[in-house]
Amino acid sequence: MIRGRVWKYGDDVNTDVIFPGRYTYARMEPEEMAKHALEDLDPDFAKGVKPGDVIVAGKNFGMGSSREQAAVCLVAAGVGAVIAKSFARIFFRNAINNGLLVLEIPEAVDAIQHGDEVELDPEVGILRHQGKEYRFPPLPGTVLEILRDGGLIPHLKKKLAEER
């Protein structure tokens, strides 16, 4: 279960805005990357985001370059999920690989406003917002396991350790 405050943005939020391109080749730990999350779009985000907060956005979230830092900085910032009308394909996979829950729930995006509180249950497939429920297909078991384990690499390490 994820509960958090909403940070709402529009369409076509690209990876250069999620994690500014000028930092792409700087050596940073994820905690340092989190300090720059969305800074060119919303200078208050990195200072104000709390663990479990949820990003809500329009169409094509994560478009642009394929850099993984975009997903990593959001995870390190404590973002509980990103809900959008649609995602860029590569960002969607990078998000799951790095342990970030991403959900396409277009009808909820229009109803939810910046600062609202939401509750998500990805196992059941329900988003709750101001007394209304939005249903979405529950995530497949393997995807839930990857997310619970903190991403694909930790998930594979866990599986290998279990086999030994």
Give the helices and strands, then pairings.
Layout (H helix, E strand, L loop, with lengths): L1 E7 L6 H4 L11 H5 L10 H4 L5 E4 L11 H9 L3 E4 L4 H9 L3 E4 L1 H6 L5 E5 L4 E4 L2 E4 L5 H8 L3 H12 L1
Parallel strand pairs: 1-2, 2-3, 3-4
Antiparallel strand pairs: 1-5, 5-6, 6-7
What does this structure look like?
The protein is 35% helix and 20% strand. A 7-stranded mixed beta sheet has the order 4-3-2-1-5-6-7. The chain has 8 helices and 7 strands. It is of the alpha/beta class. The chain has a single domain (2-163), classed as Alpha-Beta Barrel (Aconitase, domain 4). α7 (141-148) crosses α8. A hairpin with a 4-residue loop joins β5 (117-121) and β6.
Q: Which radius of gyration do the C-alpha atoms yield?
A: 15 Å
Spatial strand order of the main sheet: 4-3-2-1-5-6-7
Please work out how many helical segments DSSP would assign: 8
CATH class placement: Alpha Beta
Count of beta strands: 7
Question: What is the N-to-C succession of helices and strands?
Answer: EHHHEHEHEHEEEHH
Summarize the structure.
The chain is of the alpha/beta class.
List keywords for this structure.
7 strands; seven-stranded mixed β-sheet; about 20% strand; Aconitase, domain 4; about 160 residues; 8 helices; alpha/beta
